[in-house]
Amino acid sequence: MTLTLVTGASALVTMDNADREYVDGALAFRDGVLLAVGSQAELAALRDVADTVIDARGGVITPGLVNTHHHLYQSLTRALPGAINTSLFGWLKRLYPIWARYRPEDVFAATQLGLAELALSGCTLSSDHFYIYPDGVRLEDTIAAAQGLGIRFHATRGSMSVGESAGGLPPDSVVEREDAILNDCIRVIDAFHDPADGAMVRIGVAPCSPFSVSRELMRDAALLARDKGVMLHTHLAEDADDVAFSLERFGCRPGQYAQELGWVGPDVWHAHCVQLDAAEIELFAQTRTGVAHCPCSNCRLGSGIAPVRQMLAAGVPVGLGVDGSASNDSGHLLNEARQAMLLQRVIGGAEAFDPRAALRMATRGGAELLGRQDCGVLERGRRADFVIWPVDEVATLGSWDPVAALVLAPPAGPRDVYVEGRAIVRDGELVQVPRAEVKHAARASLAYLMESA
Ligand SMILES: [Zn+2]
Question: Which of 16, 149, 376, 440 is the most exposed place for a label (fewest CB within 10 A)?
């Protein structure tokens, strides 16, 4: 019921249809929903009726950043010897046996750590692609971590069903039976998916990749997701090996494979798509199939540079993802926006990609990709998910354009992060779960994993 006014920001970026930005920006919200967004002068009358006034001086306000691809459980396998200098397939083979030892508490601790890192880089909504379920581990181990931190969360029920003995990549010990996978998808959708505006938890269906599940599971997953009204997610066309595998095994390119099995449409988003060709980009644009662009991961694994400019120009919905921490190995979402801009300039020149385009992809672009019309934009009626970035700190001071500076001279982290009108970060510190608690849980699980390695 309380009315909160946030005022005095150096700039406020709305990401609305008119690309409005306000100098001396302000916003007001009640019950998790934005009531007004504008200049400080326009909202001055609210000062007298507001229950709480938050001073945003020295800060820039943006919509909360949206992370569209992650494997949060991987946060405990960063910088792993043997996986540091390998490309995708070799890297996966090194990591599968370690992931196979995770217990429920390790999944919780890793997810909590990864989400804390995201919150501390300005993220208000994250998806997660969780596809490995050792004994006792369930999707709700990840959901619990998100609920504790107060971050908006799109968990996806991932899966692997084709092990080494059947010509797949993962060891047989970590794959599941396909009927069990589909039944568990139904269970978690029924238990946790909230289709309503303002939903804090949504569920998606997400076989790991075309090289770790069967054609039948891809098709059945799409049928199930459409029956339940939830979204579909997987990895696609990540690198040259991935495309070669598709040609050899399925006799077609990844885009065709996706299309044949029902994996195109506005309810589908694919991670990476580094190797999409012109026809596949056109297919994605025509069908409004989304792409989660993960620039640091693509660099880290040497996968290539995704044709993001061509995708955006064609009308493909594109959002940003940090990808799993074992392939980034960092989960700093604002830096990901910077990396996205830099990579497009490497191939397209200095005028190829504007900092504001990167910010747009990191906010509204990601929200739209995840089917959230209620988030990603600061305007009346949307959810109160926003970030106050300090722009008078050592890393940012001296910037003449405070909005472009978020990408060109980024602050180390946000000052405050709000989700549904509730602070999840204040003065650079986590609010809902103490940082020490996040670290303690992560250390305990890391010790177990190292000991049993
Ligand atoms: Zn991934």
Answer: 440
438 alpha carbon to ligand 1 midpoint, in Å? 23
Amino acid letter at 368? E
Contact 160, 213 (CB under 8 A): yes
Question: What was the pLDDT predicted at 87?
Answer: 78
Q: 10 Å Cβ neighbour count for 299?
A: 17
Asked if the bond preceding 267 is cis, omega within 30° of 0, the reply is: no
The H-assigned helical ranges of 251-301 are 254-260, 278-287, 295-300
How remote is the CA of residue 198 from the centroid of ligand 1, in Å? 26
Cα 126 to ligand 1 centre (Å):
13
**19: helix, strand or coil:** coil
User: Per residue in 140-171, pLDDT tens?
Assistant: 999 999 999 999 999 999 999 999 899 888 88
Determine contact, residues 21/38, Cβ cutoff 8 Å: no
Residues with C-beta atoms within 5 A of ion ligand 1? 271, 323
253 Cα to the center of ligand 1, angstroms = 19
Amino acid at 113: L
Nearest Cα to 388, choosing from 57, 67, 46, 126?
Answer: 57
SS (H, E, C) 428-447: CEECCCCHHHHHHHHHHHHH
Whole-angstrom distance, CA of residue 331 vs CA of residue 446? 18
Q: How far apart are CA 193 and CA 227, in angstroms?
A: 13
Distance 90 CA to ligand 1 centre (A): 15
Please state, for a pLDDT cut of 70, what percent of the chain lies above it: 100
Cβ contact 418:393 at 8 Å = no
The ranges of the chain with pLDDT < 50 are none
3-class SS shares of the chain: helix, strand, coil, % to 5: 40, 20, 40
pLDDT at 208: 94
26-55 tens-digit pLDDT: 999 999 999 999 999 999 999 999 999 999
Residue with tokens 């083979």: 93
